[in-house]
Amino acid sequence: MPNFNLSLSPEQIEYVLKPGITITQAYEVTNNSDNAITISTEVLAWQPSGNNGNISYQDVVASPNIIFSLNNADIKLGQTFSLAPKAKQQLVLKVSSAQETSLEDYYYTFFVTQQSQNTNSNNAIGSQATGKIGSNILLTVSNSENTSIQAQINKFTVSPKIKDVFFTPLTFKAEIKNNSQNFFKTKGTIIINKNDLKIKELELNDNNVLANYSRNITCKDQDTCTIQAPFWPGRYTATLKLDESINAPSANISFFVFPFSIVAILILFLAIFLTGFKLRKRFIEK
Amino acid sequence: MKLMMKPKMINKTIKDMSSLHQGRMSIYRQVGFIFFIFLFLITPKTISAQTFTSDKLKIQFGNFNMGSGKQTGGGYSLTNTTGQNAPGQFSNQGFVLKSGFQYIYDNIYPFSFQIDNLNINFGDLTPDVGSTASNNITITTPSRRGYQIMAVANRPLSSTIGTIIPDATCDSGTPCTESVSAPWTTNTAFGFGFNATNTAGIGTSAYFTNSTYYRHFASLSNQETGQIIMSESKPVKDSSAKITYKVLVSKFQPAGSYENSISFIAVPKY
Question: CA-CA distance, B61 to A191, in Å (whole number)?
């Protein structure tokens, strides 16, 4: 049964390069299947889609000033070549920026595509599937290694804002907006304080925020930014602070924790006690 | 003459001899200590390190990592490096240095994508009866940013003379598109569609609520690009989904061979 089983490494590269400079990057593509396959390569430009790191290739025009080619002696970009079962192939991608390249970011994916092997019989009704695996290329074209970054924190929220000491966790959300022409990473922390004492610190994942786009925050070792109950009752404040190099003012929010469940249990016990007391009193009166 | 010694004198003599012996031992110790210091100073020092050299380069390893790994349990996840001199992530203007296994362990398996069957064959179709076929996709990504998988067809299921089986629009009242899925359970809604599901809905539930939800493929012939059908925002190993293809034709559908090509595209999130 024909199948697709490819690995591509590295899965993402990030470079700062000056106009007129050429760099090379070696990729390793591995055919993990038991069949010899024919593959080809291509590079496509993309743009961010949404705030969660998704990518869209729809209506994206590649810059003519960023030129890609393969440095391999026997393989050209776009040309098909064979890969034996369990074999690896190193592909050396050459990235050149023209002298007149605008000083901004450029985002691409280097794709390796397995060519379709149509083995469906004649008069069949069906589809021929094929696979494609890509590695992202984040390029900053700049005359300086240290690019100027301006950002802001939007929609810093906590849910729920009023909560019980037990049960539901607290989830923090925020959106980092990049107001500059170059991507940066969301280095920073959420610090939760109560009575000016630090209760907890959550470290942000260093996700890329692309030029003029926004990115939702996530925290280390979790999909979101969440802290689990229980909490002491009281007023808490949370501060989202980004790394100083990002030039973004920190954002603050507050939330309250009340002992709802404890009060409810006490009321329940009190009601049971009072009911029992009344019943006992009636019994004695009779 | 008989030498007679009183017990007190004997004790004193023993003490004197003992102190003399101790004094000699102390001198031996001091001489021994100085000798070892001397040896330490004059002998070349050996450190545990590894060096690789060639005409153009020399790589020196300052230490040997003697053990490393990642252990997980019910309530914990522990990574460790043993033997690293200064584990940690260090950064400055222009560089990031990751020292120690736990700072690189997420790269020990490469970004991989697998489709277990590339031939999707429905066999003979019966009008007004839905036919399904399936295959499985599996993805591994070391990136904590996660991945996205997109799907796109070159065209609708088409015959050689240009007749097509239309794209599924799902049940009337809840239309599906190439980017929106909807229930498709009736046998009066004709077309070709698919869904992606797995047991826990991990990665797929945002796109297909359950296995009754379908959508049709984005089609290059309609100037559409691949639509995301599965994604996660964390590193995964062998995360998989079952792709179910469904075709339902009316009795007016001309007989013949209908084919198209479908691409599944896996890319990491940035």
Answer: 38
Contact A216, A52 (CB under 8 A): yes
Nearest CA in chain B to A55: B269
Residue B233: which of B269, B204, B186 has the closest Cα? Answer: B269
Chain B contact present for A61, CB below 8 A = no
In this structure, is the dihedral angle defined by the CA atoms of residues B231, B233, B234 and B235, taken in order, positive or negative? positive
Are A66 and A19 contacting, i.e. CB atoms less than 8 angstroms apart?
Answer: no
Report H helices in chain B.
Answer: 7-42
Q: Tokens at residue A165, please? A: 């000491």
Q: Do A134 and B257 touch (CB under 8 A)?
A: no
Using CB atoms, pick whichever of A111, A120, A205 lies closest to residue B119: A120
Is residue B140 a contact partner of residue B237, using CB atoms and an 8 Å limit? yes
- The candidate with the shortest Cα–Cα distance to B266, out of B223, B216, B203, is B203
**Beta strand spans in A59-141 (E):** 66-70, 81-83, 88-97, 105-114, 125-141
Most B-contacting residue of A5, A11, A47 (CB-CB within 10 A), to test interface: A11
What torsion do the CA atoms of B19, B24, B29, B34 make, to the nearest 10 degrees?
140
Cα A269 off chain centre by: 48
Which candidate, A80, A72, A50, A133, places its Cα nearest to that of B263?
A133
Q: Identify whether the C-beta of residue A258 lies closer than 8 Å to the C-beta of residue A233.
A: yes
Q: Which fold has domain A151-259?
A: Immunoglobulin-like (2.60.40)
Question: In angstroms, rounded to a whole number, what is the distance separating the alpha carbons of residues B88 and A227?
Answer: 25
CATH 2.60.40.10 residue window(s) in chain A: 6-141, 151-259
CB A41 within 8 A of CB B258: no
* CA-CA-CA-CA torsion sign (A151, A152, A158, A159): negative
ipTM of the complex: 0.87
The domain A6-141 belongs to what CATH superfamily? Immunoglobulins (2.60.40.10)
Reported as a single tens digit per residue, the pLDDT across A4-63 is 999 999 999 999 999 999 999 999 999 999 999 999 999 999 999 999 999 999 999 999
Is A148 at the interface with chain B, CB within 8 A?
Answer: no
User: Which structure tokens are listed for B182?
Assistant: 């909807």
pLDDT in tens, A74-123: 999 999 999 999 999 999 999 999 999 999 999 999 999 999 876 655 66
> Shortest Cα distance from B29 to chain A (angstroms)?
56
Q: Which helix (DSSP H) or strand (DSSP E) does residue B149 occupy?
A: strand B147-153
